[in-house]
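WARN  no MSA supplied for this record, continuing single-sequence
INFO  ligand: S-adenosylmethionine
INFO  echoing inputs
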Amino acid sequence: MNHTFDKSYWDDIWSSERAGSMSTSDPNPHLIRQVEALRPGSAIDAGCGAGAEAIWLTGAGWAVTAADVAAGALAFGEQRAADAGLSDRIQWVQADLSSWEPNQQYDLVTTHYAHPAIGQLEFYRRIATWVAPKGTLLIVGHLHRHDDAEDHDHGQRQGQGHSHGHGHGHGSDEDSEHEGRPPTEASTTAAAITELLDGDIWEIETAEEPQRTMTGPGGRVTTIHDVVVRATRRN
Ligand SMILES: C[S@@+](CC[C@H](N)C(=O)[O-])C[C@H]1O[C@@H](n2cnc3c(N)ncnc32)[C@H](O)[C@@H]1O
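INFO  complex generated
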């Protein structure tokens, strides 16, 4: 790996040319499917990027905190919320969520493809503690596939650096030969996430590894392999 997913990495991403296209993504379909039947309450989107999910949640009646380490991401989000007439209904927080602690718990803690320097499972372990009793944890991440490691290593040898090519907020190097495949350190599995969640505390509602297609710039279609875990905190 020729970088870490630290603040300066994400600041660079969100001030790069590709940030413009990243900032127009639709809300994640897994979020909509997993959350639409829940009763709205307080929510936090951890690593919210340009705010598509935070804005969707707000429109669905949730009182949303949208948190991201990158000021550039939040600026896009605030503009989108203003355009949607929702400015005053979302609390935007610039924070490094590997160390930041909220001063409340939330009825919904959700994250979509955020991968901070501390690593996926440690990040998920942290944000799970922010869920209120009877609340919901929803994790949407990159699936770790056996061929990811080989593919990523090859990309690095070619000096291509890091790319995902998903167009949903962390760069879209559409020319990369490992386009559509996240680096191994940014991916996980449903089993690894559910193992984090103590059965005495959590009821697993969903643990899936679905795939979907996205159409990117130039009409290019990419298959995305996701991990989706939804759990309810028992008490
Ligand atoms: C791949 S983007 C996904 C953005 C958005 N959730 C989406 O699905 O489009 C990952 C986001 O996580 C944020 N992020 C990474 N590390 C973070 C950290 N330590 N604290 C807060 N946000 C972080 C990045 O700035 C970036 O906006």
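The mean pLDDT is 87.
INFO  checksum written, moving to next record
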